[in-house]
Amino acid sequence: MKILVLAGGYDQIALIQKIKKRGHYVILADYYKNPPAKDVADMHYQISTLDEDAVCRVAEDEQVDMIVTACTDQALMTVASVSDRLGLPTYLSKMTALNVTNKSNMKKLLNDCNVPTAFSYIFKRTEEINYNLFEGTYPLVIKPCDCNSSKGVVKVQSFEKLKKAVQDAFELSRSHQVIVEEFMEGIELSIDIWNGNDEIKILSVTETIKRKDSENDFTICGSVYPAGINQDDEKQIYDIAERIINGFELPKGPVLIQAIKTKNGIKVIEFSARMGGGTKYELIELISGVDIMEVYTQLVLDNMVKSVEPKKTTKSIEMIYIYARDGVFCKLLGFEDCKKEKIIDDYFLYKTPGTEIKSAKTSSDRISGVIISATNQEELLKKKQEFLHRADIWDINKESMMIKESIGE
Q1: Residue where a domain terminates, one of 152, 182, 212
Q2: Average model confidence (pLDDT) for the chain?
Q3: 194/291 same-domain check
Q4: In angstroms, what CA-CA distances link 278 with 91, 114, 285, 293?
Q5: Interval 114-125: pLDDT, tens
Q6: What is the DSSP letter of 117?
Q7: Which residues have C-beta within 8 Å of that of residue 325, sequence separation ≥ 6?
Q8: Residue ranges in 63-158 assigned as alpha helix (H)
Q9: Residue among 240, 267, 215, 272 at smallest CA distance from 98
Q10: What confidence tier does 216 reach under pLDDT thresholds 50, 70, 90?
Q11: CATH code of 282's domain
Q12: In a domain, 238, yes or no
């Protein structure tokens, strides 16, 4: 078969490799000239994965048999929409894709399904917003309704910052819709689930760590396992997952739920019908023993819904996401040595050398990811400190550009 893969980041390398291992021809669509996955694909078109007309033209010109993606949010809508237009097979319907990628639709359905979530308002650009609604309710969180990762998501503490954040979010939203919601205090959880033939299986629950130098933004700098949940929390997670899967009529496959463990229980921030990004498939396999990328590939290519049996590890594990200051990325230093000496389990390069780094705010700005595991938290901390002491990132002037302050040094 000829397969069109949307998005060419590091996560999609694993998907492409599994597709090619089955003997299929892979065409990659990605906005960047030299995305990380370009070298493993057979052909690359430099187009936006959000441009449905451009993706449709490539699919028609190349006479592809299928369009797929993995570990990315907004491209799901393109996969479902273009597949529907061309009559190509896909596990996700156009309506379901819209409901899981547009936060406005998602919020309405979460409330309809009685899923605990943050109280929120949804505004369209044409509306006159009564900002007095929010007096005495700060802090608040502002989100564009249809952006990848945490792009445009901001926490505000005042009326003046609220107005600016809403205006900025409108500029980023393709549907010109913005959500203003309550800020929930608690432990942020990232929950990966497999919705199989027989039952819902929790693959991993990790605590999401935000950058310490980023008070008002939502820049994720790591995932920690175990996340400190108890049996009651796990029961609530199963209940929430079941409500979402049934209420949104989700197909068999992966489900990613982002939630907050508050003093009043677990509340959902948002979710998607996909695996987590940021090399989460590697973390899931380390935690549960399940090769979720293999299971997912069987689903999208063969329409095979495989049963999984997660086995929770007793190890302490952390995925560290590494950002950099502005500059042109040249190379990583010390990463390979740390891997050889088993200070780290593995590392993943999200940017190709020569890439200009202009920001360190969203997941798309990360240069690298690193997994560290240990028998306990004390050993994990020692390994992390040793890695941060020895590792660095150089720009083209051989100057350090690695931001260490946000991840513990």
Answers
A1: 182
A2: 94
A3: yes
A4: 23, 30, 14, 13
A5: 999 999 999 987
A6: B
A7: 357, 360, 401, 402, 403
A8: 75-86, 94-101, 103-112
A9: 272
A10: low
A11: 3.30.470.20
A12: yes
Q: Where are the beta strands (DSSP E) in 108-231?
A: 120-124, 140-144, 154-156, 177-182, 187-195, 200-210, 220-225
Residues 6+ apart with CB under 8 A from 42: 20, 25, 26, 27
For residue 358, give both structure tokens.
Answer: 């202009």
CB 388 within 8 A of CB 405: no
DSSP 363-406: GGG--EEEEEEESSHHHHHHHHHHHHHH-EEEETTS-B-B--GG
User: Does a structural domain hold residue 95?
Assistant: no
pLDDT in the model for residue 214 = 58
pLDDT at residue 357 tops 90? yes
Q: Are 110 and 55 in contact (CB under 8 A)?
A: no
Query: What order of strands is seen across the sheet that includes strand 154-156?
Result: 120-124, 177-182, 140-144, 154-156
pLDDT higher than 60, residue 215: no
Instruction: Give the pLDDT of residue 125.
Output: 76
How many structural domains comprise the chain? 4
Q: Which residues partner with 124 through β-bridges?
A: 177
Provide the pLDDT for residue 113.
Answer: 96
Asked if 63 and 39 sit in the same domain, the reply is yes
Q: Are 344 and 350 in contact (CB under 8 A)?
A: no
> 384 pLDDT exceeds 70?
yes
The answer to whether residue 44 is domain-embedded is: yes
Neighbours of 27 (CB within 10 A): 20
- Same structural domain, 193 and 294: yes
Q: Which residues are paired to 66 by β-bridges?
A: 3
Rounded CA separation 35/19 (Å): 18
Are 149 and 253 found together in one domain? no
Q: 331: part of which helix (H) or strand (E)? A: strand 327-333
249: left (phi over 0), alpha (psi -120 to 50) or beta: left
One domain, residues 64 and 154? no
* Structural domain harbouring 339: 316-407
- Residue 164, domain CATH: 3.30.1490.20
In a domain, 310, yes or no: no
